Amino acid sequence: MTHPVEGMLLPVTHDLGAFQVRRALPARGLTMVGPFCFVDQFGPGTLDIGLGMDVRPHPHIGLSTVTYLFEGSIDHRDSLGNFATISPGAVNLMTAGKGIVHSERSPQSERDKGAPMYGMQTWLALPDGKEEMDPSFEQVMPDKLPIIEAKGVKARVIMGTLWGATAATTCHAPTIYADIVLDAGGAIPIDAEADERALMLVGGSAEISGEAMELYALYVLRPGEIGTLLSKTGGRVMLMGGVDFPTGRRVWWNFVSSRQDRIDQAVRDWTEGRFPTVPNDPESIPLPETPLTNSDPL
Ligand code: MN
Questions:
Q1: Phi/psi at 273 (nearest 5 deg)?
Q2: What is the Å distance from ligand 1's center to 91 Cα?
Q3: Model pTM?
Q4: Within a domain: residue 49?
């Protein structure tokens, strides 16, 4: 039997003072794990009282954003008119398709007490034939995300089917995503049904089939190999992956597409004001000259 870890990627870390944001994907040499084409982990940290997170309205195309929090809460507003406050244990899935604009801001109640910042934001590329679908938004509450209890482990299925349980979250392409909390001595098998899989330790300590995991690194698993996740002292691990896309995706700023000319069109549309606006949130983020996220596997 081959060891299930195929490779390990260290994230790029940005220090925002009160907390850090770590970008594991896209990485040099690896742009996707299943539909996941962007993986950000942030925190843990706490903003000073009176401060908040303010991601002003900005556009997306060609992807779904998946927001999942360990601590804190965030207000979501989008150009479809949706407003939702996400809290730990729920998932927000916003599908951009042909285009959406949204903002993410700390609720006032969080600013008043010092906002905890600890969670994940990932992007899922939309598959061929669905890149230009109509935009949509859903919030799936914790009671629709099954919890698997194994020996010293509670694992929440956020997307797809894992350990025989299926999350209610919409999947536009076959996807797996789970939040695995291990007590000291806890262990759980990582099966091999998804084409592509990766693990990230986001707190405490853990090992995958005997290999100690580094905090916040992305461990890409070898297709078809079953592994065992174990923690001696307690830890928290995210499992993500899904179908192997037959076509590549370009990520440029907030835009994802299989076609460069579609990204170019989205750039013009945002610059020239052709995206829809977000009700009750008139600000916007201008197009950057050089975006932080720019991967070109095409
Ligand atoms: Mn966004």
A1: 75, 30
A2: 15
A3: 0.97
A4: yes
